[in-house]
Amino acid sequence: MALHYILQHLDSPGTYARILFVDFSSAFNTIIPSLLQDKLSQLHVPDSTCKWITDFLSDRKQHVKLGKHVSASRTISTGSPQGCVLSPLLFSLYTNSCTSSHQSVKLLKFADDTTLIGLISGGDESAYRWESDHSGDSPVTTVDSFRFPGSIITQDLKWELNISSITKKAQQRLFFLRRLKKFNLPNTMMVHFYMAIMESILCSSVTVWYAADTAKDKGRLQRVIRSAERVIGCNLPSLQDLFASRSLKRAKKIVADPSHPGQKLFVPLPSGRRLRSIRTKTARHHSTGHSPSHCTCH
């Protein structure tokens, strides 16, 4: 959604975008159960569920263990337990009121990662500056690239750094695949290992960057797959096939989720058999790798 907002905005002349990445320090530890309960009640969460969550977060025992030494227990009633599956959801609900007050500024939240996107037109950054000033009091520095959340986004919206990172990780995992080959692991098990350890890396956010990637970078990733094929001794899905299947799966998931902000992009034609294409003035939606630098990361 972040990339879509930016590309859609850059489709008009005289525009550019600024992105502010906000990192909350010990975010999950800041949750106050009583305030969270009020928030959940405002969101029409059943009262019994609100009380259950408040009880779960209150009066928790905690101690520290160092070797054979264990500290005395302390009772805490703030924050959410580390590793708790509810923590990201509870924090998102806890910060639900944190929204943008300007149409030209998009605020995206993913657990404790918050991103502020300023869609600038005519050089007027007042709305973006106002929102960024109210997002925190820490100094803001300009960077050429940023890992967001697991992919590297750059100022020129090219994906070379991201592909280099993915290629390096996948090549490192080839070592383990070769080691397993020496132990005569069955091909079926080798394929399962490849899918879990290597394919998952190669497909990280593939639905976002693949269409905008260069043929050279796609070739780099495909060579890693061919190397894995030689080690395992069987054919593996190509990067193009993986992109197509992942894109279709993602599209179906978005269409089936009325709360997803991207669902409105899937508009059927009157016939009902095909979807309406997104109208654009340029090819940036399809070839972001060749677009000029219009994006500044903070």
From TrEMBL:
Entry superkingdom: Eukaryota
GO molecular function, a single term: methyltransferase activity
Alphabetically ordered keywords of this record: Membrane, Transmembrane, Transmembrane helix
Domain Reverse transcriptase: 1-181
InterPro entries in the record: AlkB_hom8_N, DNA/RNA_pol_sf, RT_dom
Pfam family, one: ALKBH8_N
Annotated transmembrane regions: 191-212
SUPFAM superfamilies: DNA/RNA polymerases (SSF56672)
Protein name: Reverse transcriptase domain-containing protein
Organism per entry: Gasterosteus aculeatus aculeatus
